[in-house]
Design goal:
The chain is of the alpha/beta class. The protein has helices at 17-27, 47-53, 66-76, 96-105, 126-143, 174-185, 206-225, and strands at 4-10, 34-40, 57-60, 81-84, 110-119, 155-158, 188-195. The chain has a single domain (4-225), classed as Alpha-Beta Complex (Spore Coat Polysaccharide Biosynthesis Protein SpsA, Chain A). The longest helix is centred in the last third of the chain and has 20 residues, at 206-225. The radius of gyration is 16 Å and the shape is globular.
Amino acid sequence: MSKLSIIIPTMNEERSIGHVIDAIRDNLPPGLNYEILIVDTDSRDRTREIADSKGARIIDEPRRGYGIAYKTGFQNAEGEIIATLDADMTYPAEKISELIQLLESERIDFITTNRFADLQPGAMRFAHQLGNKLLSIATRLLFGVKIRDSQSGMWVFKKEILPLLRLTSDGMPLSEEIKIEAFRKVKAIEVPIRYSPRMGEVKLNTWKDGVKNMKFLFRKRLWRAN
């Protein structure tokens, strides 16, 4: 099996980051060659200290931005396969191994996940659900990408496809952009996952980030038309 790089962006996640790293380590098969990359965007708590004590590699990224954090992680990843998830215990770390096997056995290039398939009580506010579904509908209509959850942050993919993807966003829209690019350019699928309530402070501004993501979709569509 190829080496795996697991990328987790963080900002003040001391309550959960240790649990996430433990969950990853406890659920990967013995003998797997892997690394856990923490891309920390200027945390002011013990996030980096805890992650370092658990054996993760810390990458300091002083610039804010979801997209920036992931691009920095991609540049520093040593593995041939990249997996991503959040630092708040919402995504199922135990699913990573299964997704890697699927990627390799079915010769898939990119796998994203659908949180709505098994949304746990309290995991997502109604307004957040509505915004996500509207963005997913817009993604399907504007780009013909057949996915149910355009905003999911858990992906598994081959690092070699990154040069093929035109990733322009440095913010939250990177999540939808990487799926649009992957589904249009490489072999990509969406699979169901369980999505659990967050551990720690909620940082997402539902309406502000939603409007920003929607504007990005239309700008990207106009760019493709020109």
